[in-house]
Amino acid sequence: MLMLSWIFVVSVLAPFVSAEAAAYKDAAFIEFFRRTNGIVACDGASSVPLSDGRVLWFFGDSYVDCYRDGTVPCLFQVRNVAMVHHKDDLQHVRPLLGKHGKSLFKNATNDETWFWPESGFQQSNSVYIYLINLKKAGSGPLGFAAIGRDYWGKMKFPELDTIDYIPLPSFNGIDFGAGFVPESDGRTYAFGHKRRGISVNLYLARFRTANPETNWTFWNGTDWSASVTNAAAITKQDATSVQVCKVKDRFLITTSQFSVGCDQGKEIYVATATAPTGPYSARKTIFTIDDTYEGHYPFFYLPITHPEFINPNDELLITYCINGYEPCARSCVDGRMNPDHYRPRAIRVPLKLLFDQ
Question: Is the pLDDT of residue 9 over 60?
Answer without folding.
Answer: no
